[in-house]
Design goal:
about 170 residues, alpha/beta, two-stranded parallel sheet, 2 domains, five-stranded mixed β-sheet
Length: about 170
């Protein structure tokens, strides 16, 4: 809705209801803006907080599909791509190097897992909320060779990581 009389007062500077003074623009109340922003922030925080952990697979992995209902929880994450074995997004070794040997233990992965276990045990001495549980999640493409997966699982088991979880995509129902 427009008010032409008000516009003419502003443009021509006529004396009107303001008694010759300039009409100043209205400023929004900062208190109401802060209230609205606070409400939005609380809403967003509540909508993003969930009980389940979000697992983001690597972009070049196609995880197997499963009907499993158990939600994921925080563990050490191993990612196996076509080229690399990565632990917590750190390249540990190459897949070709692992498959080239007949040895069941993967030395580079064994060393990384040993260091991780030792650090967790050291922290557990001083913190009651941290303990070594041996939980590990393996994210691998659904076309991974079983021989490679068997070597990874064997190496993890040798270092005390015996509670395996394989990351999968939830089947749409």
């Amino acid at each position: 809705m427009s008010f032409p009389a008000m516009k003419s007062h502003l443009k021509k500077g006529r004396k009107g209801h303001s008694g010759g003074r300039e009409i100043k623009a209205l400023k929004p109340q900062i208190t109401s803006v802060v209230d609205i922003m606070t409400c939005l922030l609380i809403y967003l925080l509540q909508s993003f907080s969930t009980d389940e952990q979000v697992v983001t697979p690597s972009k070049n992995l196609e995880l197997p599909i499963s009907t499993a209902q158990k939600p994921p929880h925080m563990t050490v994450v191993l990612t196996v791509t076509d080229e690399y074995i990565m632990a917590e997004n750190e390249r540990v070794t190459t897949v070709d190097k692992v498959l080239a040997t007949d040895d069941m233990t993967i030395p580079e992965l064994d060393s990384w897992l040993s260091d991780r276990r030792d650090r967790t045990l050291h922290i557990a001495k001083y913190s009651s909320s941290t303990k070594f549980t041996g939980d590990i999640t393996i994210q691998a493409d659904k076309k991974i060779r079983f021989r490679l997966l068997k070597k990874i699982m064997y190496t993890c088991g040798q270092e005390g990581y015996n509670n395996f979880s394989l990351a999968v995509q939830k089947k749409d129902t």
